Amino acid sequence: MTQSHELEVVDVVEETADAHSITFRVPAGAEAEFSYKPGQFLTVAVPSDRDGLAARCYSLCSSPTDESGTLTITVKRTADGYASNWMCDQVRPGSRVRVLPPSGIFTPASLDADLLLLAGGSGVTPVMSILRTALARGTGRVVVLYANRDERSVIFAAELARLAAEHPERLQVVHWLESVQGLPTQEQLRAFAADRASYDAFVCGPAPFMKLAVAALKDLGFPRERRHQEKFVSLGGNPFGDVPGLTSPGEQVDDQVEVADDEPVVAGPVRLEVELDGKTHAFDDWDPRTRMLDFLEAKGVKAPWSCRAGECSACAIRLVEGEVRMAHNDVLDDEDLADGIRLGCQSTPVTDVVRGSYS
Ligand SMILES: Cc1cc2nc3c(=O)[nH]c(=O)nc-3n(C[C@H](O)[C@H](O)[C@H](O)COP(=O)(O)OP(=O)(O)OC[C@H]3O[C@@H](n4cnc5c(N)ncnc54)[C@H](O)[C@@H]3O)c2cc1C
User: Fold this and answer.
1) Distances in Å between the alpha carbon of 8 and those of 94, 98, 182, 209, 224?
2) What is the pLDDT of residue 242?
């Protein structure tokens, strides 16, 4: 299981009345583990009297190109939310917070691509990281549509204005205020994206905004590989796995390996081939009662994961041969499934050979 680290908070900025940016120092010696791609997130352990801890993901808004080497997340209060309010109320410079290293697949394949970034509310956080990094390291054009309730809820307003002024040839930022224009419709989002149909699109925001934006992109024929979305959901499980009295999802998985509810479909052993970071790993002894992620980890393969509960998609793998069965899936939609995308943390094989790629 991935090691958590206690990071020291070095800065807290009140971006708006209900959003705080929290900056962490990376501990000496852990720099490689905390290197990240723009668009990735940290998983934070929020202390809880009730459950020991509540695990929540927060996207990094900082850029890996930042010279400071620090990590910044931006947490927006959720009405009646537990963890977001705790983070905004309790975390101060000098606080120490347990986190898991960066994870996630909401990242551009190339920083030189033209990027269409559609964000709503706190969904701007990973978009900011992508934007900052693309401007610093890439060469393409970047267009941001950022929807908010009203002017006071716009996070990073000054920074966006500064970047747009600094990069007039490459960056265009369009603010959409519900207080002025009403909620954006699918037709309006479609019209906005129509001239950018060749761009790589990234969508993050409240569920209704994402639904309309993704439908608009589909209307315009954006292929799956140029249409990325990040869903902000709260994890139900505990990927930290070591709180006394609390069962971790990893432990639950092991239990299910021993006493699977469903009989395995194939007798096994199964051949599994996965491509990860340009390297192919092949094994002939996958026990069909074992989840793919557990099996790969047991073989020493550092496959990506975060929630281990089928809720976050950090462990997504695209199958190119064979099939698996997922015990639980809260994030992949029908189109993802039709494209062969599966959650490694939830998958057991149903064919004798399974081949897939994490790229
Ligand atoms: C990949 C990813 C990236 C994300 N990035 C961001 C981001 O950049 N910024 C951002 O603001 N959000 C982000 N989110 C959303 C974030 O992870 C949380 O879902 C959000 O902050 C709401 O969490 P909450 O606990 O405040 O609210 P809720 O999850 O709505 O809180 C209610 C839940 O807390 C439980 N609860 C209540 N009291 C307690 C208690 N005492 N102990 C334990 N549990 C309790 C309740 O049972 C209930 O399940 C991201 C999510 C994902 C998956």
Assistant:
1) 6, 9, 41, 34, 39
2) 59
> Is 109 within the bounds of a domain?
no
Asked if residue 204 is part of any domain, the answer here is yes
Q: Please report, for the domain that includes residue 10, its CATH number.
A: 2.40.30.10
Separation of alpha carbons 176 and 312, rounded Å = 28
If one compares 239 and 270, the residue with the highest pLDDT of the two is: 270
Q: Do 130 and 198 fall into the same domain?
A: yes
Residue found under tokens 């069909």: 288
Same domain? For 70 and 47 the reply is yes
Domain membership flag for residue 62: yes
For residues 316 and 106, what is the distance between their CA atoms, to the nearest angstrom? 11
State in Å: Cα 256 to ligand 1 middle: 26
Q: Are residues 99 and 123 in the same domain?
A: no
Span 309-338, mean pLDDT?
90
Ligand 1 binding pocket, CB closer than 6 Å? 41, 48-51, 54, 56-59, 73-76, 78, 81-85, 104, 122, 125, 230, 232-234, 312
The Å distance, Cα 331 to ligand 1 centre, comes to 16
Handedness of CA 359, 340, 56, 250 (dihedral sign): negative
pLDDT tens figures, 137-194: 999 999 999 999 999 999 999 999 999 999 999 999 999 999 999 999 999 999 999 9
User: Lowest mean pLDDT: which of 236-240, 326-330, 355-359?
Assistant: 236-240
Q: What angle do the packed helices 124-137 and 157-166 form, to 10 degrees? A: 20
User: Domain total for the chain?
Assistant: 3
Q: What residues have CB less than 8 Å from 60, skipping those under 6 apart? A: 36, 38, 40, 41, 42, 71, 72, 73, 102, 125, 126, 129
Opening angle at CA 96, ends 92 and 97, nearest 5: 100
